[in-house]
Specification:
mainly beta; Lipocalin; 10-stranded antiparallel sheet; 2 helices; about 50% strand
Length: about 160
């Protein structure tokens, strides 16, 4: 069971698990991040059309599934042991990412990944739940090794009914 978060006075503990709908009006544009990793036209269009985020936060693992238009899907799963795991690259290029997840004292989850060329770099994504459990904020820091550059974005989600 996911830990209770501050501000939750109900019987049921708040959890990151669920289906989340992106609130585009309150989320940052992702143009600089896509520029950093030199994302192609088709994947840029897919990223702009991200409509939902599914999170599975169990005692054993933290998993995410990002969907855009029903055909663009990226799934990642990390054990809470902190063990480094390998996943497919989010940018759909050949190769893998290596990463892990950690739990914050506030119940947040932080996924840190890195990848090799082309466009070698790293990403740190932190998922933080609001006190009422109805809003999720994902902050992402993308860093590229050469030429050295980085950007940070915020994506806001509302819990889907």
């Amino acid at each position: 069971m996911a830990p209770s978060l501050a501000g939750n006075t109900g019987e049921k503990p708040l959890t990151l698990t669920g289906r989340w709908k992106k609130d585009s009006s309150r989320s940052d544009k992702m143009d600089k991040g896509m520029d950093l990793i030199q994302l192609g036209w088709a994947l840029r269009k897919g990223m702009v059309m991200v409509t939902a985020l599914l999170i599975e936060d169990t005692p054993d693992h933290f998993a995410t599934l990002v969907e855009a238009l029903g055909f663009f899907k990226v799934r990642e799963q990390y054990p809470w042991t902190g063990e480094m795991t390998h996943q497919k690259r989010r940018d759909m290029r050949e190769g893998q990412t290596t990463g892990n997840v950690t739990r914050g004292k506030d119940g947040s989850a932080t996924v840190e990944i890195s990848w090799d060329n082309p466009h070698a770099g790293s990403s740190k994504d932190t998922f933080t739940l609001s006190a009422d459990g109805q809003e999720l904020v994902q902050t992402s820091l993308i860093t590229i090794i050469s030429p050295p550059d980085s950007c940070e974005t915020k994506t806001v989600y509302k819990r889907a009914s």
